[in-house]
Amino acid sequence: MAARTALEPAALRSPARIPLRPAAETPPRHGVRVGRIPLFEPTPHVPQGYSAKAFAGEVVPFRVVSFREGHDRIGVHLRLTDPAGNDTLHRMAPLGDGTDRWQVEVALDATGTWTYRYEAYADEFATWASSAAVKAEAGVDIAVMCALGAELLAAAAAEKDRPAPERTLLKAAAKRLKKPDAVQLGAVATDAAVTAALHDRPVQGVGSRTAALSLTVERATAGVGAWYEFFPRSEGAAQRKDGTVKSGTFRTAAKRLPGVAGMGFDVIYLVPVHPIGSTNRKGRNNTLTAEPGDPGSPYAIGAAEGGHDAIHPDLGTEKDFLAFVRAAQKEGLEVALDLALQASPDHPWVTEHPEWFTTLPDGTIAYAENPPKKYQDIYPLNFDNDPDGIYAEMLRVVMHWVGFGVRIFRVDNPHTKPLQFWEWLIAEVNAQDPGVIFLAEAFTRPAVMRALAAVGFQQSYSYFTWRNTKAELEEFLTTIAHETSDYMRPNLFVNTHDILTEYLQFGGRAAYRIRACIAATAAPVYGVYAGYELVENVARPGSEENIDNEKYEYKLRDWDAAEERGESLAPLLRRLNEIRRAHPALRQLRNLSVHWSDDDAVLVYSKHLDAAFTGTGRPDTLIIVANVDPHSVRETTVHLDTRIWGVEPGDEFLVEDLLTGAEWTWRDHNYVRLDAFAEPVHILRVKERP
Question: Binning pLDDT at 50, 70 and 90, where does residue 7 land?
Answer without folding.
Answer: very low
